[in-house]
## 1
Amino acid sequence: AYRYCTKHYFYFADKPIPFMKPSFPFGNAGPILMKKVSLFDHFQNLYNAFPNSRIHGMFNMRQPAYIVRDPELVKQITVKDFDYFVDHMTTGLEQTEDNHSNHLLLGNSLVSLRGQKWRDMRATLSPAFTGSKMRLMFTLIAECGQTMVEYFRAEERKARAAGGTGYQLELKDVMTRFANDVIGTAAFGIKVDSFRDPKNQFISMARSVTNQESLLKAIKMLGYTFVPKLMMRLNIDFLTPEEDRFFRSTILETMRTREEKGIFRPDMIELLMQAKKGSLKHQQGDEQRIDSETGEGFATVEESHVGRRAHDRVWSDTELIAQAFIFFFAGFETISWTLSFALYELTVHEEIQARLYEEIRDTEQSLEEGQALTYEKLQSMPYLDMVVSETLRLWPIATVLNRECVRDYQYDDGQGVRFTIEKGALLFIPIVGMHFNPKYYPEPERFDPERFNQENRKNIQQGTYLPFGAGPRNCIGSRFALMEAKVALYYLLLNFRLLPCAKTQIPLKLKKSSTQFATEQGIWLEFQSRSS
Ligand code: HEM
């Protein structure tokens, strides 16, 4: 066991870069595995281990990994020399060119795919996430925002009738319900109302998949992160057979009904059906930028040449279903956390909340009588965009980017430091380290949307703002995520004033946990209706 764990401990010995000394048996992952630090602290500590390095080494348990600190090097790895770093880190779930029998949904999803297969799937899906497709889906998302507000109104009235001053709630739970309804309608083509029917089958399955309290899921997550080869050998799926069956049958059934009845609905199922027929393509106008100061959001990441290539691969049902499934995996927790953090920051920064409310109210008043909010109007609010951009800086839920080197790479810093990053090596780019580096963001702990005003955003150095990653492997859902977050903030702020309550933890602290992203005491606050 000792030999196995320490086998690679000399990996960095002949490399001209500093590295963190490993200790048996966890390498440098001890503090996180022993629950002594939060995920944010862990990756900040790794990032700050050698404050003057461009790149240094650490041990992710027994596996050597490079920590990339220099923004120029981030660009080099994620964009310029992307062909050497195409893949995300191995988890043991992934579908490779040579394991065609892989039937796992997560293993077939874009996040896990590798090499040429990833390139083809990215190019297939890319047209589904353009601005013009988001515009079509906007109404579906806006409906979910309005449903949430109606529910909040009713709860607030009940709370007042019972003698309270407003509706007090734990945000994460409620934002999870909103995220669930959005995924239901936008990705799976099903209307669900998790506010009035909090135990519907759809949310039960979603909670079961993303259940961070489940010991079994936690063990599996640790396995995928630290012993991926073993997980692959044991062929352990992340989903239970029941979860797998539910997602497959829901999507296949919806597709069948639509085909039989000729139903059209502007959602992901429709786009996947087009992808199956090979008719989902980039169209003229997809590129058209929104004519406003903010575009579609400062944080939006652009699609690269990879997403625009043509290919003639035909996809199986499993391969397509897996792409609807990633909305859960990549878009469920990320959105509900981002929204919870944004609402928390607005609660504890009254003046920022007041300014955002003014902008939202003015936008609402600019709509013609009876006209509903539009995609263009949503994107025309610069302060809303600043608040969202700063939330993603201060609370970068993805925490760290990872890349696997797919062929030997010659590192050369131009100042005499040269060495080889071998095929198979793992690289981490700690987003949270970059976002909290005072060199790039003075007083990094402070929530300050002004960092992203028209003047200041020009000065943000490339490679230092990474909420949605970078390069061709960036987040394909960034436009969708920003639209969803902005819709929720718009409707909530328009209708409610946010106030701290007795249970609000100030400052908010993250839980020390190896597998779970969680706050110590939940995120509590009080909603007061603006009309009462
Ligand atoms: C606030 C919300 C979100 C955040 C902060 C976020 C962040 C990220 C980050 C950092 C990555 C890795 C990028 C890289 O390695 O360079 C990623 C990948 C990805 N995200 Fe998101 N994401 C969000 C929402 C979504 C949504 C709503 C979807 C819906 C489909 C989505 C789908 C994906 C997919 C499919 C990938 C893998 C892309 C690939 O490997 O080609 N994400 N996301």
Note: The beta strands are 55-60, 63-68, 167-170, 400-404, 409-412, 418-421, 426-430, 496-499, 524-529.
## 2
Amino acid sequence: MNLHEYPSAEALDQALASAVSEQLQQDIDNNGVASMAVSGGSTPKGLFARLSKMDLAWEKVIVTLVDERWVNPEHADSNEKLVRDCLLQNCAVAAQLIGLKNGHSSAEQGVTELHSVLQQLPEKFSVVVLGMGGDGHTASFFPQSPQLAAAVDMNTEYSCCATNPVTAPHERMTLTLPRILSTKSLFLHITGAQKKQIFEQACQAGPLTEYPVRSVIDQSIVDLDVYWTHA
Ligand SMILES: O=C1O[C@H](COP(=O)(O)O)[C@@H](O)[C@H](O)[C@H]1O
């Protein structure tokens, strides 16, 4: 694991946007296509604004989400709406978006259809950018969620899993842990002193159910790059 610390959110966003676009560019050059799974919530807004202005062949980039709240894409809490409003702008308007929300009335019912849609993606993402909540969740791997074990099962054949968070609103759809770890670059984006404290606690030995972010810290499949600022 590599820890990259910055004095401000702006400095972090700039550095992370450069690291992400470098990997995307490399995959465009080598394979003619790049793919990226991003998180929602409030943390990535500045990163998305910077990324959207990066000079890349965005028409060759497929963007999807790490997780989604089971609300319509017009809903203020939709992660897809955030990506459309903040990332798929400027140069990045040409990117292709694969959203996680489909027409089923519950995420649980939507899993099979979404799983087959996600099969269109390259086996390995170019980039995955994770966030972390103040309760130590990442993606939609929530503490106390009855579906946490299924979502982090490294033997699952599914790319996605429906979860019910106890500590947050809305039923969720999340990429499963093996799908998330199938990436060339894995970034964890953390802002604020309180989240840093949770992250440091999560780095100590303890159960995954306490801080599900441990699922990406305690693994040796892909190097984790943590981008952090106290601001
Ligand atoms: O609900 C979610 O929360 C986390 C963290 O969000 P933030 O608002 O604290 O940045 C996010 O990574 C995840 O994608 C989202 O669905």
Note: The pocket of LXAUTJHC is lined by residues 39-43, 66-67, 79, 131, 133, 140, 168 (CB under 6 Å).
